[in-house]
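Worked example (supplementary).
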Amino acid sequence: MSGRDSTERSGAAIEALRGPPLVLGTPTPASLTRSLLAYVFGAPGRAWWTLFALACLGLGVFAWALYQTFIHGVGTWGVNVPVAWGFAIINFVWWIGIGHAGTLISAILFLFQQRWRTSINRFAEAMTLFAILQAAMFPLLHLGRPWLFYYLAPYPSTLRLWPQFRSALPWDFVAVSTYGLVSLIFWYLGLIPDLAAARDTAKPGFRQRLYALFALGWRHSARHWHHYKTAYLLLAGLATPLVLSVHSVVSFDFAITNLPGWHTTIFPPYFVAGAIFSGLAMVLLLMVPARAALGFEQVITARHIDNLNKLMLATGLMVAYGYVQEHFFAWYSGNVFEEAAYAAKRWGPYAPLFWGQIACNVAIPQLLWFERIRRSLLATWLIALVVVVGMWLERFTIVVVPLSHDFLPSSWGVYVPSPVDLGLLVGTLSLFAFLFLLFLKVIPPVPIHEVKEVLEEVSP
Amino acid sequence: MSRYWVLAEFAGPKALLTAARILRDEGLANVDLHSPHPIDGADEVLGLGASRVRWVGLVGGLVGAVTGYVTCWYTNAINFPIDVGGRPLNSAPAFIPVTFEAGVLFGAFALLFSMLAITGLPALYHPVFEAPGFERVSVDAYWLSFSIRSAEDRANEVAERVKAMGATRVSVVKDPRLEAMR
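After joint prediction of all chains, the assembly is encoded as:
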């Protein structure tokens, strides 16, 4: 074998390892900027208006449900005495979990230098922000008197009372508000150069002035990039443990009680895995249609979708392992109450929801082992939808079943959601869609400067 | 004497770095580069050391963590102690979540605000924006800028020299901010 052959061969091997390109075709920086901003600057099409109108309709339902909750109180919900936590807590845990994928993509994959994250991180971060917003709303509504939520903040009040920091509720308050603010800072910092690009390419007018204001006068100076890069890297470093902590803190709400079915040490890692799993599904659910509608096939390629699907499969397996372990613990503990709580999950009145959860989160995602499925847009979208629904069911069985089936048979009870509960669910989904649709039309949804960096590396 | 900003556009990052290196070697301290994305090697050419942002971030994070713990301890163990089943008032394990989250929160704010303070942003006006074609720096243009205090003739002379280094276009902008201050 000659030397030249082996060089060629190793060159081909490196090529194969590198995988398909992250940016299709040979766009110039100018054409890339134009195509990535075209949707933001263009007039909204019919599909956008239709979805927007639907979201506004849903907001009407939301307004009604909120009115009922504020004026008549949480008695309008389906919650009752054994099951005091209903849809509000289910939605809270579900949304905050969905938020986790954005930080995973933007911070954790950034630290691991996964270049493919560049095309999708802005998208995922926006999803995170809006999901946190939804999540933050529910514990406050759940308080019963939401207008007194500021009691949770440690401020020297005339009541001379302080929050009780040995309880999980103030932990939640601190964790969720920190997560929201840090995600906002991270998102905004990444956005500054792109807002400058929007400022410099938009038609003169009100919108351009708005971009100029929020771009803070960014002039792409190397002296600024220098500090910017360090701040961004360190923020990613801070966001990484933060994202792992937030759902762990949420799981403490359950795990530090002594209710059978909640009181288990596996909850923090199991919640984090489920969070990222559901979040990746939500990213795919939004990205697959948006990519075609926005004309981003060039920068969000089959490889991006394939990678996200692989991550979803991996986190899905962790979640499945969590299910196996919690049921095993319940049996192996020999504790009759633990066993009864998990038997109630499997065979009780909510058994269809539990088996639905197993089908959605464990069985169906196994299809992602096949490359053809991972690269099919329709299959990906359907599986993502199934997982998002399955994770909601998981939150339902976690919150409701142990409460409905505690130590004393005399205090067992069944929870059925009320129309107001359903109105809040429809409303929160609509508010999320409303914010996301506005985001697509106002803010550059793909980080332009980062894609240019990738382009620069490919063709120096 | 006024302050003049000399701006020169170059064809690509390599030409830009070469020109910047020459100007730096000649002792011009305030050369700056403008590019659509961070350029590899720019920090080195401009002689920028590690960013001070990291120290501010570290201090912010530590201050946050201490604040978080002290808040829990002062409110629940000193100012309004509540005995819950004889558990210790200063329950360190229960205070860890708040300590950690406050550390992250203060650290993130410290990073953001220190970056803004060090870079002098927000600064909605800057004389470099006056140069025709400078807005292309958001898209695909590579510019070099520096300021000198001199008479106008001298500024034009310097601009000619930069042009000779291979710049495709050169502008000289008078800094109106100093004029206004007079």
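Two points are worth noting when inspecting this output. The CA atoms of residues 110 and 163 of chain A lie 37 Å apart. Residues 168-201 of chain A form the longest helix (34 residues).
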